[in-house]
Amino acid sequence: MLTKHCAECGTQISAEDWYEFIALKYCRSCAREVRRRQQAEWMREFRRKQREQHALTRQLCTAQQEEIERLRMLVALEREKVRELTDEIGGENA
Ligand SMILES: [Zn+2]
User: Fold this and answer.
1) Computed from CA positions of residues 8, 10, 12, 14, in that sequence, does the dihedral angle turn out positive or negative?
2) pTM of the prediction?
3) Is residue 90 pLDDT above 90, yes or no?
4) How do the domains of the chain map onto residue ranges?
């Protein structure tokens, strides 16, 4: 039986074979606690990244709204030009 001490609480822990011994780091209850902590940390990190991504998406949407507004104005100006030219042509033909 191979034995060592839990990296968290120092309790003596044992492994059946060498491979288990290498992988073993914590006693049963500490392993559960460490895993819970890691999962909470991953979740926090995941939510943080999601928030970041949402902020970027919002920025992109705002930029695109502005671009659409700018294009609408261009279209309105072009329509105005076309109307003026049409009036000119109509005037000449009359
Ligand atoms: Zn422990």
Assistant:
1) positive
2) 0.57
3) no
4) 2-93
